[in-house]
Specification:
This protein is about 80% helix and about 0% strand. By secondary structure, the protein is mostly helical. It starts with a helix and ends with a helix. GO terms for molecular function: isomerase activity.
């Protein structure tokens, strides 16, 4: 776990740095400098682009990681990388052509509930293409076990740029229209910078004589479109459907709630940048012992680290919303529901990586279609009844089913699971601290309450994890910190 721990810590630090900037943007600047309608519009454009992005990417980011380590000669690698660079264009170009021909019809359909969307529909395509190629170039760097710079670009760069743009908007250096276009340009610039970095690690040598099994690569890429789409769909399908079913202002409230809950996913996102290619390597080399070890340790370490973040979010959520505009408190229960979703996702460890990089990846086609259908149905049923809480409940139910199916399938095919008795102890610790401090009101100003609660919770949580050695890796890190 040496390289995993090292790069995971680096990625976690940069990811949380991005989240700090993102928190300022989402919780304060967006809510103060934009109307809920315009904030909701930005959220809708980015969410819809995220939904389209896996299709535009054609599964290439996953395909790069799965197959690259299996090719040993430079010629095979050059041919494979050439294919990966051009494959997404098979989708991007035809969809762009259709978009130009049918722009009025498409923009009219998307803006049927909220007219403000119509004039900005074209930006969805631009942002989706930029996001897709960014992920491809990021994967290019990950196959060389270099994820730190890419993680900075993924988590920090665009948020800092938007921070600057928001102040430019506030001081009337930009109009709202120019601001929205500038946000799209930021994603394009981010993609170009990632491209230059990826190519600095290995300059592509175009070779269209593919002397490897192209059909297996294409088959995997095609199927992984569905698999990759599920995660993105489940992240942003709810916001897309909110924009179709209810007033767009609600997306602003929902966006803030999702942002707060997503902080729980940071350790997982950071660790997966390095565990994903390692999982592919162990599977390609049929190293079952290392794979099981990585599976169990990743799950336990993630649930311990994400558990403290989950607890801090839950116990401080009322005080946090007291600092925001009152209308945003409509989404308080959304935070709690989605936080549980994120915590359970961390509990699965490298479950996704194992399926995506194994010979059983085809099952994701079935699981993915099933979950998307379930999610769409639940959103249509629950949003009109429970508004934004309905979208959160739909996401929870769909993701719980999806995670359960993947966990069952890995156990069935590989005869392994990520849990231990320490998993149970950690979950019990999280539950007890969350319940104890959620209802405990110190009666001070919200900021003081947050500081006191957070200090006490972190001290208790850290002491118990260290005293009972719930994780050898975390205990080792804490010992090093204590010695320093």
């Amino acid at each position: 776990m040496g390289i995993v721990i090292k790069q995971s810590i680096q990625n976690t630090i940069t990811t949380y740095l991005g989240f700090v900037v993102g928190a300022v943007n989402a919780l304060f600047l967006y809510t103060q400098f934009l109307t809920p309608e315009n904030y909701g519009l930005i959220g809708y454009l980015l969410s819809t682009a995220n939904v389209m992005m896996p299709l535009f990417m054609f599964g290439v980011s996953n395909t790069l990681v799965k197959f690259f380590s299996s090719y040993k000669t430079k010629k095979q690698q050059n041919g494979f990388l050439t294919l990966m660079l051009f494959l997404p264009l098979l989708v991007i170009i035809p969809i762009g052509f259709i978009g130009v021909l049918g722009y009025q019809a498409i923009s009219g359909w998307l803006s049927s509930e909220n007219e403000i969307i119509k004039n900005y529909t074209y930006l969805i395509y631009i942002i989706a293409v930029a996001m897709a190629y960014f992920e491809i170039f990021f994967a290019w760097s990950k196959i060389h076990y270099k994820s730190a710079f890419g993680n900075i670009m993924k988590e920090v760069f665009h948020r800092v740029c938007i921070f600057i743009l928001l102040f430019a908007l506030h001081y009337k250096l930009l109009t709202v229209d120019q601001f929205i276009i500038a946000v799209a340009i930021v994603y394009v610039i981010r993609m170009l910078i990632m491209k230059f970095y990826a190519f600095s690690l290995r300059i592509p040598k175009l070779d269209f004589n593919f002397n490897f099994n192209v059909s297996s690569v294409l088959k995997y890429s095609f199927l992984i479109i569905i698999a990759g789409s599920v995660a993105m769909f489940m992240l942003d399908l709810d916001k897309f459907m909110l924009g179709k079913l209810i007033v767009i202002d609600n997306i602003a409230y929902y966006n803030v709630a999702i942002f707060v809950a997503t902080v729980i996913a940071v350790p997982s996102r950071a660790m997966h940048q390095i565990t994903y290619p390692l999982t592919a390597k162990y599977l390609n080399e049929n190293d079952k012992v290392s794979l099981v070890n990585l599976y169990k340790k990743s799950s336990l370490n993630l649930i311990i680290v994400s558990g403290i973040i989950f607890t801090l979010v839950i116990v401080n959520i009322n005080d946090l919303y007291a600092l925001l505009n009152p209308e945003y408190s409509k989404a308080l229960y959304v935070v709690i529901i989605i936080s549980i979703v994120k915590l359970l996702d961390n509990l699965l460890g490298i479950n996704n990586s194992i399926i995506f990089n194994s010979n059983y990846y085809r099952i994701i086609l079935f699981f993915g279609v099933l979950i998307i259908l379930v999610a769409v149905l639940l959103n249509y049923l629950l949003i009109p009844i429970y508004n934004i809480n309905g979208a959160a409940i739909a996401t929870f139910l769909a993701m719980f089913l999806y995670g359960s199916l993947k966990l069952w399938y890995v156990n069935k095919k590989f005869k392994m699971h990520p849990f231990s008795v320490y998993t149970f102890y950690t979950l019990l610790l999280i539950l007890l601290l969350s319940l104890a401090f959620y209802f405990w009101d110190f009666g001070f100003h919200s900021i003081i309450n947050i500081i006191i609660k957070s200090t006490v919770v972190v001290a208790l949580y850290g002491f118990i994890v260290y005293r009972f050695n719930l994780s050898e890796d975390i205990t080792t890190i804490l010992n090093k910190l204590l010695k320093q």
